Amino acid sequence: MQSVLSREKVIELLKRLLEAYSPTGSEFKASRIASKEALKLGYEEAWVDDQGSFHAERGGSGPRVLLAGHIDTVPGFIDVRVEGDLIYGRGAVDAKGPLASFILAGLLVEGCRVRVSGLAGEEGDSRGALALLASKEEFEHIIVGEPTGLSIVIGYMGSNPLVIECRGTGGHASSPEVGDSALSKIIEAYESLKASARSSAMTMLRSTAAAHNVLPGSSTAMIDVRLERESLSLVLPRGCRVRALSYTPPVRVKPQAPIVRALQRAMLSRGLKPRLTVKRGTSDMNILASMTGSIVAFGPGDSRLSHSNIEYIKVSDVIEAAKIVADALTLICGGRL
Asked: Which one is predicted more confidently, 336 or 155?
């Protein structure tokens, strides 16, 4: 374990991944580099699929396990540099640091077939995860690589961004109670969302009126909606319509799921206190959860640094995460849960 997880080798792997700039839609180069690094480290197979996702496998019989990180990042290049225990670069936290910990962890496990994937498009349309889902491949346990600060994420909210468009006949602004304001209708529709959505935020509002003293005749709003359950209630006033830009279902796994218990035991054995959390955002876990009930998100890194211009991760945290994941898989593959 010490040779694979030596600080020098971990930094080398991180630098190779971070120096391959891979904003969403431009993942192929980074995935080819990740594939070469995996083979060099000892994986039996490594390849890049037609979506631009990276995959590597090793191991024999036993449970089939997927460690699913993502290779794409948000745009914005950050010079890669090492300062003490910190390594800077776009994707250091979200989520090439967690992916590196998965690549390292997979080398330390015996008794099962381990697939490590750096999926494409997680910051966009999740095309890598959707392609993996469509492949009908089967995995008994899945860990999704995200910067969780070494907490065990057992759930994510769903996402359902909406566009609401309303029209009204207008009227004099001095008598809004007798007029027909498209803007008032938008606000009424937005208020109705709050009863069923875990959170909702109006991120865009456009309204037109002929003059400052005329009620608007048309209004459009974009609402970012986060869901705890799959149903959503929306009361639309007359003259309004709604369309969904996308839909990602919420996910929640039981704390008793095997992969959850394995990570908890692995952390306890290392003197760490396990924390189970539910995130308000979404990740590829929302998509991949239909493949197995034994799924979590886990990884090193402070999520508050995600997408920022000072994105960095601790090398020691990447190493610690690799050890935890390797220990957890060893428990599962050895049937010791």
From this structure: 155
